[in-house]
Amino acid sequence: MKRHPEIIANADLTALSTFRLPARATELAIIDSIEQLPALPPTEGDELVLGGGSNTVFVADYPGRILLNRIKGLTTEECGNDVLVTAAAGENWHRLVRTCIDRGLHGLENLVMIPGCVGAAPMQNIGAYGAELSERFERLDAWDRSERRMVALEKTDCAFGYRDSLFKSAEPGRYLITSVTLRLSRHFQSRVDYASLSEAIQRTGIDQPTPRQLAAAVMRLRRHRLPDPTRLPNAGSFFKNPVVTKGQAETLLIEHPQLLHWPMPDGMIKLGAGRMIELLGWKGKSVGDAAVYPNHALVLVNRGSATASDLLTLVEAIQSSVEGAYGIRLEPEPRLIKT
Ligand SMILES: Cc1cc2nc3c(=O)[nH]c(=O)nc-3n(C[C@H](O)[C@H](O)[C@H](O)COP(=O)(O)OP(=O)(O)OC[C@H]3O[C@@H](n4cnc5c(N)ncnc54)[C@H](O)[C@@H]3O)c2cc1C
Q1: CA nearest 34: which of 60, 72, 81?
Q2: In a domain, 1, yes or no
Q3: Which of 47, 59, 171, 292 has its CA 20 to 30 A from that of 184?
Q4: Position 160 in a domain
Q5: 3-class secondary-structure state, position 251
Q6: Is residue 25 domain-shared with residue 52, that is, in the same domain?
Q7: Does the C-beta of 201 come closer than 6 Å to ligand 1?
Q8: For a pocket test of ligand 1, which of 50, 146, 162, 197 has the largest count of ligand atoms closer than 8 A to its C-beta?
Q9: Chain Cα centroid distance, residue 279
Q10: Is the pTM of this model over 0.85?
Q11: CA of 204 to the centre of ligand 1 (A)
Q12: According to the model, what pLDDT value does residue 239 have?
């Protein structure tokens, strides 16, 4: 095991982000063990942790150090009827889900095929098809960059919310997550309350899907809706679904009954940003090589040689158009790195 991370100066970041805009960083440090963290020489400039780059879009060169998390490993521990699975932050999320299904450990089936690394999953409390990470989250280990020591954080410390957490909102940049522990079950209970998933399962004629059948149904839906970033670079859903009060939603829906809306556990209403963009005719529109994916208006794609300026112009145009029509300013879901 190397005590010091490999460091690359003036590193090309293009292939390290799934949107693939051209960008460079002053320095890239490839971290493959926890022991390398205290050994990192201090840096004058900024520092940014990167996993799979599927929720990070570089819209400028990065004047600092990128910490590329490649720490690997997987352990399990029996815990009553459950099993605690600890995955190192550099493990691929989708592979972890597949491995758990293969080992008869359940609870992650709906989250299959979300791109990226395990260490980034708590950042925005990844979620899909009616499930989210926080439901299975037990604890995590992290390098606290302010105190320069390892810490363990429990679920209650992490302030998970809808696509949100302590790591994204209250303490951005403070923690480098090194491993995540999930509480999985040997007993399988399928979660098919999400409308499109339940319809997809019904279409197969299966009453009670097995874990593999459930994961396969989710994968089919995802392949149909989302472009594969290795073939058509993208960052998944480009805008967050806005959350408004019940009163605001009711007023909007009188004027725009076609808007999609879902109640949240706290009484607020989540509106479908993709439908808003679609209704305004944005599907397939482009600025240079940055385009709105024709099959799904929430996804922006890089058709080959998009520039940061193409993307930012398209994003601003969509935001203004949605704000003009519905009085709501959409926020990007991926992190746009501007400096
Ligand atoms: C096609 C596609 C589909 C997607 N579908 C979904 C979906 O269904 N649901 C969903 O929730 N998301 C989805 N996403 C978004 C993305 O996959 C997730 O947010 C994922 O968790 C990002 O992982 P990553 O390793 O690529 O993160 P990165 O882009 O590398 O990093 C994301 C953020 O996390 C921080 N970070 C990364 N690793 C660490 C670490 N170890 N410690 C501390 N901070 C860290 C980074 O600094 C950055 O702020 C999708 C993306 C794509 C491209």
Answers
A1: 72
A2: no
A3: 171
A4: yes
A5: helix
A6: yes
A7: no
A8: 50
A9: 25
A10: yes
A11: 31
A12: 97
